[in-house]
Structures are given as structure tokens and as C-alpha cells.
Write a structure and sequence with these properties.
Length: 265
């Protein structure tokens, strides 16, 4: 999948990042999701060799890290700036959630394709987050919903989650669900567990070996196809029991050809 050009008009802004390993992880997340502009406002260190440790093969982005002395300078050419914050403070600020925010980020970035203006997503420092002065400079704030008792994400993980949403919108990735029969039982019986399926496949293998169906050169490949077929079917416990019945009966018939003939007569 190629990168959507709109991603080139979005900047990730890190205010006073303290740890180069974190900066590297942010660089990596940006590269993963096609963001090419990373702006550092007064980083504590930002030594490229240190950053590279957690962003292998991302020298292109590391070489073009931009440094600023203030958030105002970093946001100068941006029309929309969203501040990322774990804590919803009590004052009157505009809070949005990541999925909706991502749609707006991409829409705004699309609309200003001609003007050269940018959209910024702003992240705070690891120990104290964004100051009120920084929040004042954002049009709205985004909080990634988390466990309320442990809401603060690692800086790079917050970047990763937000950019994943942005990338999904920018590349128009469709939501693809599992077929219903895989995710939930279709009758009264529960879906078979992995272990139940595995025992059934092993039973199939024993029987197929006995009837000479599995050839030496294609044995593994055939069993992997059969296993995949059963897994795709999403069998329930009763259906697995039926297959065991079929295999057991086949084994019995192989061992007792005379009795089988007598039954038929
Ligand atoms: N201890 C700080 C958190 C800093 S984490 C605090 O309590 O504010 C570093 C940055 O990651 C934050 O400034 C914010 O930009 C981002 N971040 C972490 N958790 C987040 C969340 N749940 N939602 C949105 N942004 C988050």
C-alpha cells in the first residue's frame, strides 16, 4: 500500500521530549504510518545515534527532524493543531476522541493541498504532559480512551494509536469483519475450542493415512489444507463430534470388512 500524499501535510510535534529512545519510537511510528514531518520543540537531547536505536532504518526521517525553540514557532504554518492529553482538565476546553479527530485532521489537510499549510498533532513531555500554555495554543484536545485508573500512555504509544487512526482515514481502509459463523456459534452448541479442533484434525489424519490418501510428498501440505478448511468452517462441538463419528466408523469398517458386509446384507 502506498502512502496517501495527504499524510505529507501532517506534522507530529513533540514538546520537550526527554528521552531519545522515546523519540526513536515516535520516529518509527511515524514511518510506519507514512508521516514524514516530525517537529521537536526544545528536546532534552535528540542525538541521532541514540534515536536510531529504536528507529532502525529510519535515517531519512531522523535526518529531517526539525527543531524549534517554541511551540509557537513549530505551529507557525499550521492551520489546525490538536493537543494530545491523557487528562481531561476541568476548564472549558474542547475535547474530541481519536477517530473523529483523525477524520478532521485528514479533511483539513486535504483541503489545504494548494496552500502549503499544515495540520499539527501535538504531544507533551513524558513526565508532565502538555502545559496549559501549550494547550491554549491548540484548537482542540484529543484524549485516547483508556482505563481511567491508568490513563497515561507512553509517549510513542500515544503517537502510534493516533497515527493509526489518521492512516486508516487517509488510506480509506475498509473495516473487514469475520464471517459471522467464525465469531459466534450458529446453533445451540458452542463453537469448538482449538484443542477440540486439533484432536479432530489428528483423527482425520490417522484415518486418511490408513486409507492411503496421504502421499509422502504431499502429506504435510494436504493436512495443512484440511486443517485450514476446518478452521474456516467454524465448527461447533456437535459438528466436531459428528466428524469424530465419521472417522471412528471408517476406522471400524477398515478393521472389520466382514462385519460390514454382513451388516449390508
Ligand atoms: N504524565 C503525563 C503524561 C505524559 S505521556 C500526564 O499525566 O499528562 C506523554 C504524552 O503522551 C502526553 O503529553 C500526551 O500528549 C500523550 N498521551 C499519553 N496518554 C494519552 C492519552 N490517553 N490520550 C491522549 N494523549 C496521551
Amino acid at each position: 500500500m502506498s502512502n496517501a500524499p495527504v499524510l505529507d501535510r501532517i506534522s507530529v510535534v513533540l514538546v520537550e521530549p526527554q528521552n531519545d529512545i522515546n523519540i526513536g519510537s515516535v520516529v518509527r511510528a511515524c514511518k510506519n504510518f507514512g508521516i514524514t514531518s516530525i517537529r521537536l520543540v526544545n528536546p532534552a537531547k535528540a542525538h541521532p545515534p541514540q534515536i536510531l536505536i529504536s528507529a532502525p532504518r529510519a535515517t531519512d526521517l531522523i535526518d529531517k527532524l526539525e527543531r524549534y525553540n517554541s511551540l509557537d514557532e513549530a505551529l507557525a504554518d499550521c492551520t489546525l493543531a490538536l493537543g494530545m492529553t491523557a487528562r481531561q482538565r476541568r476548564n472549558k476546553r474542547l475535547y474530541v476522541e481519536p477517530r473523529g479527530a483523525a477524520a478532521d485532521v485528514v479533511k483539513t489537510a486535504h483541503e489545504q493541498a494548494e496552500s502549503g499549510q499544515r495540520v499539527a498533532i501535538v504531544f507533551g513531555r513524558e513526565d508532565s504532559g502538555l502545559s496549559n500554555e501549550c494547550l491554549d495554543r491548540c484548537n482542540a484536545l484529543v484524549t485516547i480512551p483508556t482505563n481511567p485508573d491508568y490513563s497515561s500512555l507512553n509517549l510513542a504509544q500515544a503517537v502510534l494509536l493516533m497515527l493509526w487512526e489518521v492512516h486508516r482515514v487517509a488510506t480509506d481502509s475498509p473495516i473487514k469483519r469475520l464471517p459471522e459463523h467464525i465469531a459466534q456459534a450458529h446453533g445451540d452448541d458452542p463453537l469448538a475450542s482449538h484443542e477440540q479442533m486439533d484432536r479432530m484434525v489428528q483423527h482425520a489424519e490417522r484415518v486418511l493415512a490408513q486409507v492411503g490418501f496421504l502421499k509422502e510428498d504431499s502429506h504435510q501440505h494436504m493436512m495443512s489444507t484440511i486443517r485450514e478448511m476446518f478452521k474456516r468452517a467454524g465448527l461447533d462441538t456437535r459438528e466436531v463430534a459428528i466428524w469424530h463419528g465419521i472417522f471412528s466408523q471408517t476406522e471400524w469398517a477398515l478393521k472389520n470388512p466382514d462385519k460390514l458386509q454382513a451388516e449390508e446384507e
